[in-house]
Design a protein that fits this description.
Oligomer: single chain
Order of helices and strands: HHHHHHHHHH
Structural class: mainly alpha
Strand content: under 5%
Length: 230
């Protein structure tokens, strides 16, 4: 456990240092923010770094292995419906805990003075991720072409972008971009790789990847559809 934490600490320091250095450079040369605000930023960056270290260690220690194990067990149940249900459930559940999604929902709530965002936006985004994760797993099990599946999905997304309310389009695409974060990405990938690893004649590279592209399209399409139905 300790070697893993040390490894993740080094990785986090490498990731966070450029941000802190850039902000400090801007502070000295251009911004000149109050010293108290700069100290709050440094303290916040330190706390964020500690959190990232623990989060990354937890993902490597337990989340990824469990995701692969669950994925490898699903095909053995012999039910495509069960695989779809589990894929939707995990996609939905992990998205509701995704830090990026929660931050976006809170920012939307503040910007709209409470008329949008919050738990309802998180639920909509999670539903989109769950639905399209399930669709992605159908492709893995049935062996459909990822190229054709993505072509259809992204064509629908483009058409909806042209006819949906203009003020909703930017939010929809931001919602899609934040779904493949530090929790959703590892869980969905591990699940997909686990499923593809036990299917005969399948390639982990060809079948285990591409699912995040589907998952990120889900919230975009769901939000745009809701905009048309309002």
């Amino acid at each position: 456990m300790l070697p893993l934490l040390k490894l993740k600490l080094v990785e986090v320091i490498k990731d966070v240092t450029p941000l802190v250095g850039t902000v400090c450079l801007l502070q000295v040369l251009f911004v000149h923010a109050p010293p108290g605000l700069l100290l709050r930023f440094i303290a916040g960056a330190l706390l964020a770094g500690i959190g990232m270290m623990l989060l990354f260690a937890g993902i490597d220690l337990g989340v990824l292995p469990m995701g692969r194990y669950i994925g490898a067990e699903l095909p053995r149940k012999g039910s495509i419906r069960f695989i779809i249900a589990v894929a939707f459930g995990l996609g939905f559940a992990v998205t509701t805990a995704e830090p990026d999604v929660l931050i976006l929902a809170e920012q939307v709530r503040r910007a709209s003075n409470g008329s949008m965002g919050g738990a309802s936006l998180v639920a909509v985004i999670a539903t989109g991720v769950g639905l399209f994760t399930a669709i992605g797993f159908v492709r893995i099990v049935r062996g459909f072409s990822m190229a054709w599946q993505l072509t259809v999905v992204y064509s629908v997304m483009i058409v909806l972008s042209l006819i949906a309310p203009a003020q909703l389009v930017p939010l929809a695409y931001d919602a899609g971009s934040v779904t493949t974060g530090v929790l959703t990405g590892p869980v969905v990938l591990a699940l997909a790789l686990g499923v593809s690893s036990v299917l005969a004649g399948r390639s982990a590279v060809a079948d285990g990847f591409g699912l995040l592209g589907m998952a990120s399209a889900g919230p975009i399409i769901v939000l745009l559809l809701l905009g048309l139905l309002r």
